[in-house]
Amino acid sequence: MIEEILPAGTASAEAFGDPDSLSLFPEEEAQISRAVEKRRREFGTVRLCARRALAELGVPAAPILPGERGAPQWPAGVVGSMTHCDGYRAAAVALSDAIATIGIDAEPHAPLPDGILGHIALASEQTLLAELGRASPAVHWDRLLFCAKESVYKAWFPLARTWLGFEEADIVLRPDGTFSARLLAASTPVLAGQALTGFEGRWLARRGLAITAISLPVGASAHDHAG
Fold it and tell me: Which fold has domain 2-104?
């Protein structure tokens, strides 16, 4: 499913459940030695997805350990992103000489819990959500906004290595399955001689899931590419 919103040159894999047994590298096992079973399954299955995606690129299996702020540490020459929620795990990877960064996120396609929207959405975003909700009430636009902001952060952090708050990305969701993210951070990384000002992404809502994806090709400006 997630491959529908990722561009050519990106490898991905997803799972809608956990296998009966999971094989982890010793270094990965050490990371979750004290974790509860739910966390172990999330951690293990999403890495199984990541290794399946890496194999599509011809990259040998290797430990994928959490790094700074939990960001996955990918093999040299690879960029990627992972996500998991109830009933879904996915990973997307690409070679770094083609894709500069990837950010994916999945959430249950359901309304956000009460009180959350005000903490993550700008006033302009809340106005847009109301308009979208009137036009397409079957879509949980508030959850898609949260999902898009998570994708933005996952795409941003490997490039900037700094925190990006919910209020530092202005998201415009569109009914056609695309979205734009304008970055409002005081300092942004420079790519191909230009400051990174935003991302273009794609979304889908299906099978009870909201999924968003961002990828930025090497050498492209932030708004040259969607998804």
Answer: Ribosomal Protein L22; Chain A (3.90.470)
